[in-house]
Amino acid sequence: MSTDPTESPEKAPDAIRDALHRPLHDLRISVLDQCNFRCPYCMPEDEFHANYEFLKRSQRLTYDEILRVARVAARLGVSKMRLTGGEPLLDKNIPQLIEGLAVIPGVDDIALTTNGMLLAPKADQLAAAGLHRVTISLDSLDKDVFRRMSGDRGDLYSVLEGIAAATAAGLTPVKINVVVQRGVNDHTVLDLLEHFRGSGHIVRLIEFMDVGNQNGWRLDQVVPSRQLLEGVQARWPLRRLDQNYPGEVARRYEYLDGEGEIGFISSVTEPFCGDCSRARLSADGVLYTCLFANQGTDLRESLRVAADDEELTDVLSQIWLQRGDRYSELRRPEVAEAHVLRKVEMYRIGG
Ligand code: SAM
Ligand code: SF4
Ligand code: SF4
Predict the structure, then answer these.
(1) Pocket flag, ligand 3, residue 323 (CB < 6 Å)
(2) Is residue 89 lining ligand 2, measured as CB closer than 6 Å?
(3) Which residues have CB under 8 Å from 154's CB, separation 6+?
């Protein structure tokens, strides 16, 4: 949780710093808010029903607008871009957007987070467009548990095909995100780890987070990473690894028997705000500086009226310079107010 400037990666001297001296390095771009799943922890079906009004195409940023924000963000220090959603692969033209991101000076890492259902037929095209890596969300290898956690929409076989296709296309290392919920899928975690041990894929076990307002979050459904770690260690001894870079979300471990790496994302029990270098752009052009923000800055107006990139750069720098977010550190499970604040929904800004 250090904010020591000497720990910054290569681009840090150029990167703008917020009020807590954190550089801006990552931009997460939500390309659309719709999804083909209804994971209860993210978009519960009773809220996101057939009549739910998602953004219309005309309300979403165009690719040109997204690329403009991305270019300006890169000038301020962003080197990592992640496409997310909703489900980003519902947008059929996404390779075009990736091509646009790939030529932005300073951008050296383009990743995509997906539920994997639509990935297999597109993996080659995505790689050819310039995508470097994918993160695939897969909560269980138990067919029934998986099905339930996708809101009765997911097909496990298709997701596994997606993982195989991404690997063959070189979108590696493939990361597999597992949201662990007590009493829902925690009993299937070791089986999932066993399956992916030795595959080169990096499984990341994520604490169920209190994002948004509609997922019925309860502290007693969070399995603390520490507890998961003990369970994994008891079966396969692990060794802690150094961070790849300051601000990395996952705590990294490797199996002592050489069968690969796993990660723990402990936003609830061991917050990591001190190094947080991420900004998030929603599909309708609102820039958020925290996953748990209750408000962001609408950039659409600036995109339309700002005469040139210089003015847009000023707008973005002001937002980042004033940033002081550290929700997870301030969170007190015993303080109810933290959870009744209206927060942005995860499907709008993509995690
Ligand atoms: N639809 C894509 C997917 O599922 O990978 C991208 C968007 S999804 C919002 C991004 C990530 O957020 C997924 O890995 C998902 O598991 C995670 N996520 C959503 N709701 C969460 C919650 N309440 N707690 C922890 N992680 C969550
Ligand atoms: Fe869709 Fe991803 Fe949210 Fe699941 S986690 S509902 S796949 S956006
Ligand atoms: Fe970053 Fe906000 Fe999460 Fe803290 S709570 S790590 S500031 S996104």
Answers:
(1) no
(2) no
(3) 37, 115, 117, 146, 147
Ligand 1 lined by 85 (C-beta under 6 Å): yes
Residue 225 clears pLDDT 80, i.e. is over it:
yes
Give, for ligand 3, the residue of 24, 207, 211, 290 to mutate: max count of ligand atoms closer than 8 Å to Cβ: 290
pLDDT in tens, 43-99: 999 999 999 999 999 999 999 999 999 999 999 999 999 999 999 999 999 999 999
| Average pLDDT, rounded, for the chain | 90
Q: Which atom of ligand 1 is nearest to the CA of 85?
A: 7
- Under CATH, domain 26-349 is a member of which superfamily? Aldolase class I (3.20.20.70)
What ranges in the chain are assigned the alpha helix state H? 63-75, 94-102, 123-129, 143-149, 156-168, 189-196, 225-235, 300-305, 309-321, 327-330, 337-340, 346-349
Residue 88 Cβ < 6 Å to ligand 2:
no
Contact 206, 268 (CB under 8 A): no
User: In 247-284, which positions are buried (b, 16+ CB within 10 angstroms) versus exposed (e)?
Assistant: bebbbbbebeeebbbbbbbbbbbebbbbbbbbbbbbbb
Ligand 2 closest atom vs CA 86: 8
**Ligand 2 centre and the CA of 322: distance in Å?**
31
Query: Do residues 344 and 288 make contact, with C-beta atoms less than 8 angstroms apart?
Result: yes
For residue 292 and ligand 1, the question of a CB distance below 6 A is answered with: no
From the CA of 197, how far away is ligand 2's center (Å)? 25
What's the start-to-end Cα distance of the chain, in Å?
Answer: 20
Question: Domain ranges in the chain?
Answer: 26-349
**Residue 339, pLDDT above cutoff 60:** no
Q: Which two tokens stand for residue 266?
A: 């402990």
Ligand 2 atom with the smallest distance to the CA of 113 is: 2
The closest of 171, 99, 159, 107 to 129, measured between CA atoms, is 99
Alpha carbon distance 290, 329 (integer Å): 12
Do the strands 286-288 and 278-281 form a parallel or antiparallel pair, or are they unpaired? Answer: antiparallel
| Stated pTM of the model | 0.92
* Of 325 and 112, more confident: 112
